[in-house]
Amino acid sequence: MLNKMFARKTITPYGEVAPEGELKRALGAFDLTALGIGAIIGTGIFVLAGIGAQKAGPGIMLSFIVAGIACLCAALCYAELAAMIPAAGSAYTYVYATMGEFIAWMIGWNLILEYLVASSAVASGWSGYFNNLIELSHIAIPHALLSNPFSGGIMNLPAFVIALLITLLLTVGVQESARVTSAIVILKIIVLLIFIVVAAPAVVPANWHPFLPFGFQGVMSGAAIIFFAYIGFDAVATTAEEAKNPQRDLPIGILASLAICTVFYIIVAAILTGMVPFAQLNVPDPLAHALVLVNKAAWAKLVSFGAVFGLTSVLVVMMMGMPRIWFAMSRDGLMPAVFSKVHPRFRTPAVSTIVSGVIVAFLAGLLPIDVIAEMTNIGTLSAFIAVSIGVWMLRRRSPDLPRVFKAPALPLVATVAVLVCGYMALSLANMTKILFVVWVAIGAVIYFTYSVRHSKLHDGDGTAEGMPSSALPPTGG
Fold it and tell me: How many CB atoms lie within 10 A of CB 141?
């Protein structure tokens, strides 16, 4: 059993995936960067900045830097493995090749949790901003259709509908989804630039004092919460099998999107906490709320408009990443084969896209997401830690394998990622940790009762000998 649990999978050589199992390669470097920005700039900037400020005060600026450093280190590790292993599945696939099947299954299981909860939370947030916008047009949606049953309503209908619409878009094609996301990304960057220009003159430096009202622990607690803002670059890695030139374009997409978004986050956080005292930012729409408080209500409407589209792009990328995790796990036999079915016309993982999209729609429409939203972070942190360890293990085990992109300063970069991500995970609420342990236990039961018995790796379709150089894609892409 131990041999099966820790057997490593040889990744199919680039360009040699069976036609019936290959996804359509349609994404370039710009598309991947736009997808990353589309996923990263959204909930973190429009919602979580105010919530994080309650933990860190004006030090939320440092929280964004700490979270950004952790993500940068993890992203460098992701970029190296993504260029070497341009297959769907992201962290799950990388860990399968470096640390073995059982750990890969648990990482994939945690990523499923991440994407389900994150997508549902974003859909719920989208609903709130959408309702604010239509109220400006004097259109009222009944409260019962805006609230879940736990809040006295019937269903959060806008959240339910937007999740289904995006599921339809993703089923039609990844290239079409990327084009929609690229257009939205340009729009929301323009909106954020307008916010910076309009809000900067309203900054009162006195609002930055005291800068660290809750000390360094407050900074780390804030980082653990707003870490949600950065997880979008993982979704870029999940589309590796749909990148035109993955060896070149994946590192560009991952690192460029992370760098651009980190700069935006720090600037906006500084302006936001300088405009009004941080205690007044504990609201679902901190940017718009702050503009109202400094008598710029007209601009607040524009920011709300940008938030609706910004959250739409986040939802597109989150819901794009989730079925590709299912697809990769199914193709390896760890989940039922139906989830690795590819649509004959659109060349998308249609079944996993539709099933996961319907689940997200019902979660967003019927359940209160706020209680379990932090579980998104702890699942992602576990994936980042595993990938950071995995890239160093592969360097030590197979130093001569060709690497188109190499993460610099290993093992330092990997060590920083592990330590900071681990510290942030420990900084999350105790209930989050308990729920995470329960989720992991459920995943372990499924693995030992189903996955290990159906794994293609143990049927002769894979290898337990690691990843030889012949299994790597050619350096020319």
Answer: 14
Provide the 3-class DSSP secondary structure of residue 149: helix
**Alpha-carbon dihedral 69, 190, 161, 108, rounded to 10 degrees:** -20
Taking Cα atoms as reference points, which of 343, 293, 344, 308 lies closest to residue 323? 343
Nearest CA to 354 out of 103, 168, 107, 144 is that of 168
Q: What is the pLDDT of residues 147-159, one digit of tens each?
A: 888 888 999 999 9
Structure tokens at 223: 């980082």
Burial class (CB in 10 A: 0-12, 13-18, 19+), 279: exposed
Q: Is the pLDDT of residue 19 over 70?
A: no
Task: Output the DSSP codes for 213-251.
Answer: TTHHHHHHHHHHHHGGGGTHHHHHHHTGGGBSSHHHHHH
Task: Tell me if residue 27 falls in helix, strand or coil.
Answer: strand
Signed CA dihedral, 66, 274, 53, 322: sign only = negative
Q: Quote the tokens at residue 269.
A: 């956080």
Q: pTM for the complete prediction?
A: 0.77
Could you count the other beta carbons within 10 Å of the beta carbon of residue 298? 10
Q: Model confidence over 24-33: pLDDT tens digits?
A: 777 888 888 8
CB 49 within 8 A of CB 60: yes
Contact between residue 342 and residue 350 where contact means Cβ atoms under 8 Å apart: yes
User: Mind giving me the DSSP string for 382-431?
Assistant: HHHHHHHHHHHHHHHH-TTS--SS--TTTTHHHHHHHHHHHHHHHTS-HH
